[in-house]
Specification:
single chain; 161 residues; mainly beta; Immunoglobulin-like; 2 domains; five-stranded mixed sheet; 1 helix; 37% strand; elongated
Length: 161
């Protein structure tokens, strides 16, 4: 029973050291403090060059025929170890939302593995057989907090008749 009671404090002790702020220990000749805590205030804010945000790219999984579901694949490099991220996007193209496809809703979620999917469900053709042509759906990534946009930043999916 005594060993079981010592495990919990040992775990807390290990977590405290793992989560403790890093100190820069420096010997002082005058006998003053032997460490200096890093300044994380606004005056010490990192420049945009110092911050390494994950970047997001997009590509189409391929063209589709009406009645099928198409997809766009989001790729985040590097993947976030402790969780995913929401990414903003806009939709454009020659296809009409609500007529040719069910419009996807922004933002899209990218999981821990670094990948996300935007699904595009096509609808039956309401125009009739005289207007049989392909229509495009273009998804463009938009900026947001916590990520940057890589290349390619947009992708096109064609809805074939």
């Amino acid at each position: 029973m005594k060993n079981r009671n010592s495990v919990f404090p040992a775990i807390l002790f290990a977590l405290a050291f793992a989560l403790a702020p890093t100190v820069q220990a420096k010997p002082q000749p005058d006998g003053g403090p032997s460490y200096v805590l890093p300044n994380n205030g606004p005056a010490d804010a990192a420049s945009s060059e110092d911050v390494k945000l994950p970047y997001i790219t997009i590509h189409s999984a391929g063209d589709i025929t009406r009645g099928k579901t198409g997809s766009f694949v989001l790729d985040m490099k590097p993947a976030l170890v402790l969780g995913g991220m929401f990414v903003n996007f806009s939709v454009s193209g020659t296809a009409i939302p609500g007529v040719d496809y069910v419009p996807p809703v922004s933002p899209a979620y990218i999981g821990q593995a670094g990948y996300g999917v935007i699904l595009v469900q096509t609808l039956p053709d309401r125009r009739g057989s005289s207007f049989r042509q392909a229509y495009s759906v273009v998804v463009t990534l938009e900026s947001g907090a916590g990520y940057s946009i890589g290349a390619p930043s947009s992708a096109t999916l064609w809805i074939k008749p």
